[in-house]
Predict the structure.
Amino acid sequence: MNIHKLAMLSLVVLSLSGCEALDPPAPGKNPEFSPTYPVTPDPKELRKITGAIYSAETVVPLFDTYRARHVGDILTIVLVESTNAQQNMTTTAKKEDQDKSVNPIFLGRPISLGSGYSLDMDLSNKRQFTGQGQTVQNNKLVGNISVTVAKVLANGNLVVQGEKWIRINQAKEYVQLSGIVRPRDIGSDNAITSDRVANARIYYGGTGQINNANAQGWFSRILWSQLAPT
């Protein structure tokens, strides 16, 4: 295989890998955000006769706030994410070198190369680099997403996860969320703001023509990849 075929094969592999990285997961295919269903107790365990009046398996609370607290319960997350970041950077590098030597003297007389040339040397070198960059980024995500309780931790905190997909014409938008919720932060309406979700993982994206228009083409991704020469 000559070098031209190898280069073309590398370009194809990079373009395909870039396309795969941009494609979002299909609904329900990512276990990190898949819905969790309540565990159904074994009927045989429920029919066990212990002689006691109270049974933990069949407890019915006298007062129920309808807040999520068991595996499979639904909880509403109010998205109130907002980030503002700005970074300024200026780099200046400067270096100067200067070397000077006089014509050596031998036996009281300066050494000469003839025709008026001497061995006097005066060398100087100067280099300077200046770079400046600025990055400004503003993001805001507002909305609601309902998730399910995936696990109840030993301290009572709830591990929640879920996703929401919306299809508008030929485009799809999705929101995926996972994290840990403290039960006392849940409001009476069974909702909690996203800024109170610990270890939050929030993803927002979409598919379709608008999303493709905002993304770089395969050739541009190759030029901006780490493999491109600088």
